[in-house]
Amino acid sequence: MAPALRSITEHVERVLALVAPLPAVAAGLAELVDGPPPVLAEDAVAADAVPPFDNSAMDGYAVRLADLPLSGEPVTLRVTGEIPAAAGSGARLGPGEAVRIMTGAPLPPGADAVVPVERTSTGRFVAGASADETTVTLARQARLHVRRRGEDVEPGTVLGHAGAEATATVVAALAASGLAAVRVHRRPRVAVIATGSELVPAGMPRRPGQITDSNSLMLAAAARATGSDVLRLGPVPDSADALRATLDQAAGAGADLIVTAGGVSAGAADVVREVLALGQDAAVSDVDVAGVGMQPGRPQALARLRGVPWIAVPGNPVSAYVSFALFVRPAIARLRGLAVPGLAFEHRRTASGWTSPPGREQVLPVRVLPTGEVEPVLVASGGGGGGHLVSTLAGSDGLAVVAADVEKVGPGDVVRVLLHGAPRG
Ligand SMILES: Nc1nc2c(c(=O)[nH]1)N[C@H]1C(S)=C(S)[C@@H](COP(=O)(O)OP(=O)(O)OC[C@H]3O[C@@H](n4cnc5c(N)ncnc54)[C@H](O)[C@@H]3O)O[C@H]1N2
Ligand code: MOO
Predict the structure, then answer these.
(1) Choosing a second label site near 244 at 20 to 30 A (CA), which of 179, 202, 252, 285?
(2) Where are the alpha helices (DSSP H) in 349-418?
(3) How do 75-83 and 257-261 pair as beta strands?
(4) What is the mean pLDDT of each run of 10 residues along the chain (425 residues)?
(5) Ligand 1 contact via 196 beta carbon (within 6 Å)
């Protein structure tokens, strides 16, 4: 009798238990933008205030408020010079004096407001020309047009939390605060291995009975998109020795995670199952061969090879991708150090209905319509659960995951959807 099938949720938990966040390393800010964002290993704290000094919000004249009548009457001040944007704050502003100041330039000591040039007798500054006016007439404004030191960020403010991605906007805040480096989790190295004697590498001629290895390209691209470095090995023929040698190569190259595709079901040549056979090989540990109650993607296995976590997914291309989205991505998210690795489902309404297999969670490629609703790319017919229909993936934006007890999804129903680009899983 076949053993009971486990749920997607349970298999995700097993996968997350197999991996641990990678160690932290120091990274200069420029390294953070060299590829997909790494994950902060500790809270990133502002080194300095932002802005670091009081500065002008406008091109205009720095003045002393005490010189400007509260009534709003214009007053004529002596222009003593100019503070460009990249200057020090210059000499103290004396009574009756004004100084030309450009946006972002430090306010001189003594000044407490800026009057925009277009509100003064000068009218406008001419780019490249230095000050030729000796006086300026201006009046008190409703706003000071001064950006105060620390009004954006006080030193010590947490700008990015441990477990969050150092995204473009976080990196900008860190740089503005004068931080030089942060601690981030090391980028995962993921080895991808396709198995099957029928496979030839993409671009190579095929003999009768051969097919092109599409899985290793798909899985490598998907793993790369998660912020991993990828080592693509194989395709490996259906020989336990060949697979063991390739697994050793992956572990020797420092893989943090090995993903194999194919050879995991009940076929005579199912080479992954052969290598996983309990007690056969001291380098293989923590073997967990499971049927997950989903369609497609049922046959799954987890193990360690020389201690390196190994996720074995089925070879049918859609089954392989579905397994990547549901199981490999959360594993990579945890390796990367993301605070909440798991499945980031969205809830979407369907534009049309379909049927779902009884007693199985259905995982169906769907496209997202301009309305935000989803519809299946193609409802599988004939050969099984659609695991072989690779082109349905190419036209899809995500995967709908239908609960095991639902046999009919009606138009307008709400379904869980895992978008292909979902950050955590
Ligand atoms: N007697 C049984 N047969 C099968 C079972 C079962 O329980 N009992 N499960 C079926 C299900 S469900 C799936 S899914 C597949 C999974 O099989 P494997 O993981 O062992 O995958 P393979 O047999 O190696 O390949 C399946 C299919 O996919 C093609 N393939 C494999 N690798 C690639 C690749 N890199 N690129 C493109 N296509 C690939 C392969 O040629 C096969 O057509 O098993 C069912 N059978
Ligand atoms: O589980 Mo298989 O993945 O149905 O095609």
Answers:
(1) 202
(2) 391-394
(3) unpaired
(4) 87 98 97 91 96 96 98 97 84 96 95 98 88 92 97 96 95 96 97 97 96 97 94 96 97 98 89 88 95 96 98 96 97 95 93 94 96 86 64 92 96 96 58
(5) yes
